Task: structure prediction
Amino acid sequence: MLWLVVAALAVRQVAAILRLPPSRRLTDLETWTGADGVLHIGGPLYATGKFTGTPFSGLVLKPLTRSAEQSLGVAWTFGSLLLVVVLGLVAARALPGEVSRRTRLIAAPVAISLLMLSLPVRNAFHLGQTSIIPVLLVLLGCFAVRDQRGSGVLIGLGAALQPTVLLFVPLLWLTGRRRAALSATAAFAVCTALAWALMARDSWTYWIHHVAGAGLGSHPDGLANQSMHGALLRLGLHGPLEIVVFLVLAVAVSVLALRRAARYAKDGQLLLAVAVTGCAAVAVSPTAWQHQLLWVLLAVVGRVGRRAADRMVWPAVVVLVSTLPGTMLLPNMAALYPVRDNVVLLTAIAAACAVPFMGRTAPGWDAAEPTVYATPVQARWSRLPLLPFWRRVLTRPNLLLELLAIRVGYSVYSHIRAAATGGRSTAEAHGRTVVSIEKALHINIEHWANHAVVKVHWLESFFNFYYESFHFVVPLAILAVLYVRRPSDYRWARTSLSFATLLGLVGFYFFPLAPPRLMPGLGFIDSVHGAQDLAHPDYGAMTAMTNQYAAMPSLHFGWALWCGVTVAVLVPKRWMKAVALLHPIFTVSAIIATANHWVLDAIGGATVVALGFGLTYLLAGPRTLLAPDAAREPEPAPRQKPPSPEQEQEQEQEQEQEQERQEPERERQGQERERQEPEQQEPEAAGAG
Result:
């Protein structure tokens, strides 16, 4: 099944490239080798600024200009796909420690799938880049070729294509593979010298004028440059000061990373050592474009955390950083821009210098501290829970992993919500249908409530403030309190809210609905956003921010109802339950009074929340949990007071009397044994005669 996933991802990747028009397909490759590409021009290689590789890579790519353009694109796509498969297989076979055959079989398709989904590989496919080749050459040199000379030659070729690969030479030297280090240096020198001999002017431009390619391609301060040089430029440092700071940081990161990598290599974790060195190469490179950041994904093999609950945090961080853009990982807040814009670089530096990867001799390497699972209360129906393997624990989940899950989940929710527009005509038609249903049910109170509230200024201001202020604050506050005070209830509440939100997305997609404020001709007043120009379909700047037709169901009310029910279920006193239920009451009043939702929207929100709680109950069982049997400590035996001297004397006298009573019985048994011995000896003597 995992290999089927790999095949599906491969087909999707190839189809995504080949379906593009020629002008948008393999743009870098076409720039180099197309009909009017750089490699066709007889003049300087870097005159146009479109070629960013080394002079040796230009020398290697030069023969490709004789191929037909369309055939070259197809061959390059399938060739890159083959390289990714080989890269995944080599990485899977290089896992550290004793790995079972089953794990190795699973590791190969998982590794290839992660590579297919990663941003560096997807960009390399889309652009037609050669960034996969240096990584593969290093892995082949470290794991596939046993001869040190051949291993060094492969790494040297990788350095000739991507100069920061030279950082692996000191790693080879520190790990005792000095012949491989010398061979790598010699191979790099020979390839570079060959390029100097055949392309002297281009070599001077690349190595001297641009200092190993710095400044070629896009602007070095662009977000795509995830190196320390690019980060310093984005922070406002320029000129000699920036160069000095960059060089100092580069030396510090390189030394620390190489020392750590050498330690991991001697510990039997050569793949982790390669990943740490590659992450350092990303950080110290003058330019590290997105398609060159594949080293960060290899750091997923490191083990961090002694508890089983914490063991997945580092792999999750690496996979998310490697597959999702920074805008999905962190919210759009100005204070977080330095982190969001450099999230890949920060992950690479952390892997190279800071993350405490475990050694193979560490106590928790083979078996992490197990998670203690709670014993669920017996459900009302014997077939529940439907997923018996969905076992819940009493301890709180890892905070970093939880925050990442919430942030990524909400980002996916926002993207799907924004994409499910359905069109203005469909949304307005659904709006007229809702009006007809509400009239038939005599619950069409939106127009009356809207105009009644607008006439009372303080009430209008209160509902406007309530609508805009508490939608996110209250659910996040409840989740935070439950996380700290009631971890097991936090898991139950979070799962219920997640199910309700997913069901809400289904409603947005299949039933786009215009809210009352965007229904022309009905006379509603938008008290929150101001007057809307209903003659134009964009409705101003709000359309660019969110899908304004995502009205059914109302998750504004649904989340508020979830807050009220959750608090009412968990708090002990009745007055607390009553106060908790005020929040959904105020919310439903606000969404109707401000003309942002219909009454049926609120009913839809209540429905998805009820289904969310119901699904959690069906799949995971009741909310109430029992203490785990394994966690229950045996009750200590009651402590006895030491006996007094008088009691000790009485106990000694009782023991002496007991011995005196047993003495005659012991004498009688001895006499009986003496009589039986001669009787046993006489038959033996007769038999011998």
Notes: The longest strand covers residues 375-376. The radius of gyration is 36 Å.
